[in-house]
Amino acid sequence: MDETQLNFRIAQLNARYARSLDNGLLEEWPEYFSDTCAYRITNRDNHAHGLPGSLVYAKGKGMLIDRVQALRRANIYEAQSYRHVIGVPLIEAAGDEEVRTETPFFVLRTMRTGEFSAFASGVYLDRVAIDRPHHVRLRERVVVCDSSRIDTLLAIPL
Amino acid sequence: MDETQLNFRIAQLNARYARSLDNGLLEEWPEYFSDTCAYRITNRDNHAHGLPGSLVYAKGKGMLIDRVQALRRANIYEAQSYRHVIGVPLIEAAGDEEVRTETPFFVLRTMRTGEFSAFASGVYLDRVAIDRPHHVRLRERVVVCDSSRIDTLLAIPL
Amino acid sequence: MDETQLNFRIAQLNARYARSLDNGLLEEWPEYFSDTCAYRITNRDNHAHGLPGSLVYAKGKGMLIDRVQALRRANIYEAQSYRHVIGVPLIEAAGDEEVRTETPFFVLRTMRTGEFSAFASGVYLDRVAIDRPHHVRLRERVVVCDSSRIDTLLAIPL
Predict the structure, then answer these.
(1) What is the ipTM of this complex?
(2) What pTM, to 2 d.p., does this model score?
(3) At what angle do helices B3-22 and C3-22 cross, to 10 degrees?
């Protein structure tokens, strides 16, 4: 794969990831990760100062699956929906077997009443594994949120 | 065309589509569709339940042109402007002559007073016709809005 | 470079540009421009009527560097952060040495209190120089803002 194709594959991965979350298909979410993986949500301040303080931390696909089950139990009634708008993946370093990318995102929330609000924005710092030709999965995703206050963080993964 | 090129063509189609709408050049809008085409605006709830309830429905390029003329008569003075932010087209199924894609969008509205508001968000479910090499047009666009309340829907197509 | 690769390069340029601004690394900003360059911020109304009225105007990389220094002196404490969401570059005209593109953007602002607001939206009208194979820089960027009121324009470049 040349860089253009690689970028396309990663953008498609992000598009599928977003669709699963926005359609409420949370059970699909762990499938975008490698078996050996890490997922973390932090904020800009903590990240800039190298602080570990993560709002969410999961290591290994099993923990992602557990997290989805916990979200399912907690959210009996979904009164709102989400829409991810994900930017172009910026390729930082590309190897044969792994790529580091940085991708901005913005999540809009729509309440049943019709009101919109910005739910979250930030950047995905990813290590993307190239499993086999034309197939990519997330080995690590660090979600760096612009805001330090994310009230309803439990509603969906970011 | 390989998948990367195809995706590029579809993204360019969406970019032109958005520019025509955001620049108020509504008369260009039907040109992005095939002669035999369908355009429909619905919402997430109706779509999820398979309900036909469409806010807007047009079949054939003639109806799209009629719709633009009706919008021109209704909107004498445009007090606001729109900005589409369209995501990466997710390629669902690609044939030689037609591609199915799913593409998230977000429309921001700016009032003359300078105030911004989210106008609409959702997903385009498209059947894209590959007319001839490197040329794509919309055969069907179903606009699934996240919100069930779209007050000022008549202002522009989505 | 074919058009797909060219589009990829320009999208990567925009992604790096956005990251520098959103991470507060303003000193990197002039590096995305050619030595002989122009940067201008105007609004939709002025642009549509061919009026020169620019909110910001800089000619040559030296003026961009000056502008960053002025911003550094003015903004002692940064109470907010920004997130650019940049759309797909629409290729208008591609030559061997220069490309004209049009790219929508949206900037979300996050206050330290956690509140989000739309800061700006509009379109970049660019002349992109192809310096050498696979390397692109901005020769001219005209930022056409949707709103005529941009209060805190001095905070960051757009």
Answers:
(1) 0.89
(2) 0.93
(3) 60
